[in-house]
Amino acid sequence: MLLLDEIVEQSEQAIHCRKQFRADEFFVQGHYPGQPIVPGVILCECAAQASAVLLSALVEGQGGVPVLTRIQDARFKRIVRPGDTIDIQATLNDRLANAFYLTAKVTVEGKLAARVDLSCALAETEG
Question: Which residues constitute the domain of residue 45?
Answer without folding.
Answer: 6-120
